[in-house]
Design a protein that fits this description.
The structure is a homodimer.
Chain A lengths: L2 E5 L3 H13 L3 E5 L2 H11 L3 E5 L7 H11 L5 E6 L4 H9 L3 E5 L3 H14 L8 E3 L2 E4 L4 E4 L2 E4 L2 H12 L5 E2 H9 L4 H18 L5 E6 L3 E6 L15
Parallel strand pairs in A: 1-2, 1-3, 3-4, 4-5
Antiparallel strand pairs in A: 6-7, 7-8, 8-9, 10-12, 11-12
Chain A binds a DNA duplex (30 and 30 nucleotides) through helix 8.
DNA sequence: TCATTGGGTTAATGAAATGTTAATGTCCGG
DNA sequence: CCGGACATTAACATTTCATTAACCCAATGA
């Protein structure tokens, strides 16, 4: 199991984050001060340190510097208030590490954590098969038939969602709510555009059908992954 | 039948919710503490866990975390009070999960429950038997005698309506009002067309008659009403 | 028997849904 | 301020499918 070190002096925030991250399958060490964080770092060698910048005593940046001196490759992720000085933010950006401004969505935090872990080779990227394609959502990469496409974020999200529900009839409304958060006419057209693009990518895969169910939504079917003996005839003669 | 686990320490609220959800056709396990909830989760593998965050002893988040560790795909729905940490709790919405703030309308809760179950594919699609055919309205699929037909939305709605009233004499007018919202001469002809199509689909089923009652309407009769070829073992998990 | 009426069936039609490509807007880093 | 990347919106093309029309037969009743 992957161990994270979280150094955060706000008790409530710290506990909630800890629980949330644990729910996502990480092991989380929580420290309330920079000093405690340093000790835990030495003892446990966490895969990633998440450091709040504003800390009583040793602040997050100092702790980060100390950690880097001990282990230059140690991945760090800083939590910072939005009001921080621009130069600090710049400094954080240019370094090899990531940072995230409070207040943030835990979802986003988890995304960044996974990204860092993957970049630094501590987490295997999720790889999904679609017929003869290989899709790595975290890298926004779809490869197969001699090509590798770099998908955009939305393309990737849509493909992932379709794939997570293969052979299910997905109502347009559900897709819209899941990916866009709401459902109106123009978003609907947007969905059409993305469906179109995904079809273009998947075109070489003759065993993959992204079918339209008029008035309802879409179904993604793959023959290779779900080999059914036979007997699917079209409805209309 | 779909099983839900509800962990809620408020006895009254718990009972009311349980009854309401049972009225909606769910099987509901009610636990008053996190510990009891954990036991029930292990024993019953519910399709969805509904967890109050504020619980004596093991709180909802901790329980959720424990459940996720056991089964990362387990859908969760949190009940939460509208507190200062609202912005953080907002982040609990991730993937299969959702949250709802107290106080809430039971209808809204049911809506969210159904959404999650549908998204995660745990809501068994309604499957209806017609002679030797199997009809799944949610998928617009009618299969039997070696074929699977993809029905259109209207075809599907009509078939569903007929089936819901098998062996009853359905007046043309009633069908029209139910499916089209009104009743005029041309809609009547439209109905004729759809009846014709449905008869075509059902043709191989000699034990199925969609009879015309001239001047009144139709009756759908099936000789084999409740097909139990090898006992009723639910093919799904 | 024929006349009449309700319904059956098939094909043509047109509106709405969707597909597709291009233009526009927006954000972000330099 | 500019340029690139990308989502969104617009504009136009295409497809699907309910409706409508047309023509048929079957039942009813005088």
């Amino acid at each position: 199991m992957i161990t994270l070190l979280l150094v955060e002096d706000d008790q409530d925030l710290g506990k909630i984050l800890k629980q949330y991250l644990e729910m996502q399958g990480f092991r989380v060490l929580l420290a309330g001060t920079g000093e405690k964080g340093w000790t835990l770092f030495l003892e446990e060698h966490p895969a990633l340190c998440i450091l709040d910048i504003m800390l009583p005593g040793m602040d997050g940046l100092s702790l980060g510097k100390k950690i880097k001196q001990k282990n230059a490759d140690q991945p760090l992720l800083f939590l910072t208030a939005r009001t921080s000085k621009e130069d600090i933010l710049k400094g954080l950006k240019t370094g090899a590490d990531d940072y995230i401004c409070k207040p943030f969505e835990p979802e986003e935090l988890v995304l960044r954590i996974r990204n860092i872990l993957r970049r630094t080779g501590r987490l295997e990227p999720e790889a999904l098969h679609i017929g003869k394609f290989l899709f790595i959502p975290d890298r926004l990469e779809l490869s197969g038939y001699g090509n590798t496409y770099r998908l955009t974020l939305k393309e990737s999200q849509l493909l992932k969602y379709l794939l997570a529900h293969r052979d299910q009839l997905l109502r347009r409304e559900d897709i819209l709510v899941e990916l866009w958060g709401e459902n109106d006419y123009f978003l609907g057209r947007s969905l059409d555009v993305f469906i179109s693009r995904i079809r273009k990518y998947l075109k070489p895969g003759k065993d993959i059908q992204l079918e339209t169910i008029r008035g309802v939504g879409y179904v993604l079917r793959t023959t290779i992954d779900d080999p059914r003996p036979n007997g699917r005839s079209s409805g209309r003669g």
